[in-house]
Design a protein that fits this description.
Layout (H helix, E strand, L loop, with lengths): L1 E8 L14 H15 L7 E6 L3 H18 L6 E2 L3 E2 L18 H8 L2 H4 L4 H12 L3 H6 L10 H16 L13 E8 L1 H12 L11 E5 L8 E4 L2 E4 L7
Parallel strand pairs: 1-5, 2-3, 2-4, 2-5
Antiparallel strand pairs: 1-6, 6-7, 7-8
Helix pairs in contact: 1-2, 7-8
């Protein structure tokens, strides 16, 4: 079954200093994103939604499915699955002593604890202070060597490169017997990963995507060179392993 992938940023949150819920406007944004994607879905297609386990992603996925189901009801014959967890959609992660790798919002309180900061190297403290104080934390992360204190952009790109290659290959989709049908894979994720992917495709960082902003990745004749679509612009995206 032919597959197309969508990466959707989570809905609006008031801050990123803990695992917060999305705002009322965030729910509206997610519903609107679902409706926008539904316009690309035809009768007989299959739609699967994936997300990480963070509250903002869980809630965004649920509201996105609401928008999808409302818009797809009139088309008929579309199989829409309930959201599922996809581990590879997780955010950039920090590496702290005595802690498993976790995303920055889950570690803010711990990193701010004076007693715990005694375990950190001076440079590490400076790195995290700069990240949390920045007006563009993900831009800060993308332009600095994390020195082992966080995922690198190369690691994040490698994770998503493999994920997109797998999705566009149709892995995990069951054919419904209709050769014209398409599988629509939707992943609710985070701005850092999206910016890394967009930079890989366009050659420059566009800054923060909108809440519930969408990247579309369409297959092409070359399975390792799909087309990435973002904010109305299209460009080839190489999924070849350059290692």
């Amino acid at each position: 079954m032919r597959s197309v992938a969508y990466l959707v940023r989570h809905g609006e949150v008031e801050h990123h200093r803990t695992d917060v819920s999305i705002t009322a406007r965030g729910h509206e944004q997610a519903v609107a994103a679902g409706r926008a994607i539904a316009e690309r879905v035809s009768a007989g297609d299959t739609v699967q939604v994936y997300r990480s386990t963070l509250a903002r992603n869980v809630e965004t996925a649920d509201s996105l499915v609401k928008g999808l189901s409302e818009s797809l009801a009139a088309k008929g014959g579309v199989t829409l699955h309930a959201p599922q967890v996809e581990e590879f959609l997780h955010n950039v992660r920090f590496a702290l002593p005595d802690q498993p790798p976790q995303e920055p919002s889950l570690l803010y309180a711990l990193i701010s604890d004076p007693a715990y900061r005694l375990k950190l190297q001076p440079g590490q403290i400076d790195y995290y202070n700069g990240f949390y104080a920045s007006k563009d934390p993900m831009g800060y992360w993308m332009t600095r060597d994390p020195n082992g204190w966080a995922d690198t952009t190369a690691e994040v790109w490698g994770r998503f490169r493999g994920l997109l290659a797998r999705v566009l290959n149709g892995d995990g989709f069951q054919s419904n017997g209709n050769p014209a049908a398409r599988a629509h894979w939707i992943g609710v994720t985070h701005s850092g990963a999206m910016r890394v992917i967009i930079r890989e495709a366009f050659g420059s960082d566009p800054g923060e995507p909108d809440f519930c902003g969408i990247i579309t990745v369409e297959p092409s004749a070359d399975p390792l060179r799909p087309t990435l679509i973002y904010r109305g612009q299209s460009v080839p995206l190489s999924l070849a392993d350059s290692a």
